[in-house]
């Protein structure tokens, strides 16, 4: 979304901002926090309007927490049900909350609350063994590679285009999405579309490949939280691999 289009979703009213942050805390919503030297996953622990401070979890790696403390600014992204929330803060400090170390920052002066769902989508390398397995209505099983995934849905990769025994809007129940180290998920998916495109294989030959697009018709709060964590962790892993590649 362009900055111009995002302006219609900005909140600057203090009470409105506090309401959004407290909902994130109440629902234990995961938050991806980015800064110039890294990123980590967190959640809001407390929103204190009197001190104008927001408390949030440290990351799971001590070195990442050190980098976050040194950062001049941090960006927060959360995707609660039906919306996307974005905001930033300046330097953070480390304090205690319920006798445990935590981060603290000023409550943001402005916040984007994007009610029109625009999910963060992470692309998946074809060499990764992440798959989606299920059964079409004609009882034929399928086992296809994940091409990309978000909280909104997923794309599947087909090496050799096939005739599909499914129509737009049809739901396939209880497919298994296997993301190996990030977990396995049993969900329903609704078919959106399929399209073919030419590509060059490793032999230099032009071949047709197919992409199947599905959306998640509904996710429970638990499914959404667990899937969001997997997506965040996958994006974080890819970011770290890209950074190491640039450093080599």
From TrEMBL:
Primary location: other
Top-rank taxon of the source lineage equals Bacteria
Q: Which GO terms describe its molecular function?
A: cyclic-di-GMP binding
Q: Which UniProt keywords apply?
A: Bacterial flagellum, c-di-GMP, Cell projection, Cilium, Flagellum, Nucleotide-binding
Biological processes, Gene Ontology terms: bacterial-type flagellum-dependent cell motility; regulation of bacterial-type flagellum-dependent cell motility by regulation of motor speed
Which GO cellular component terms, listed alphabetically, does the Swiss-Prot or TrEMBL entry include? bacterial-type flagellum basal body
Give start and end of each PilZ domain: 115-233
Compartment annotation: Bacterial flagellum basal body
- Per UniProt, residues of the Type III secretion system flagellar brake protein YcgR PilZN domain are 9-112
- Which N-terminal residues, if any, form the signal peptide? none
The UniProt family comment states:
Belongs to the YcgR family.
What the protein does comes down to: Acts as a flagellar brake, regulating swimming and swarming in a bis-(3'-5') cyclic diguanylic acid (c-di-GMP)-dependent manner. Binds 1 c-di-GMP dimer per subunit. Increasing levels of c-di-GMP lead to decreased motility.
The subunit field of the Swiss-Prot or TrEMBL record says: Monomer. Interacts with the flagellar basal bodies.
Task: Report what the protein is called.
Answer: Flagellar brake protein YcgR
Q: Which organism is it from?
A: Rouxiella aceris
Q: Which gene encodes it?
A: ycgR
